Amino acid sequence: MLTLALLMIGAGLMGATVNMAMSTEPRIEEPPPWERWRWSVIAGIGAALLVPLFLRTVSSGLLTQVLMPDPKGEDLLVFGGFCLLAAISSKKFIESLSEKLVRETREEAVKIRAEVEQVAQQAEKAELLATVAAETVAPAPNAKTAADAAASPVSGRGDVSGDPWKGAFGGVSEAGGRKLEATISPIDADSQLMTVHLRITSTNPGNPLQGAVRFYLHPTFPQNVRTITAKQGNAGLSVISYGAFTVGAETDGGKVRLELDLSTLPDAKEPWSSR
Question: Domains in the chain, ordered, with CATH?
Answer without folding.
Answer: 2-99 (no CATH), 146-274 (2.60.40)
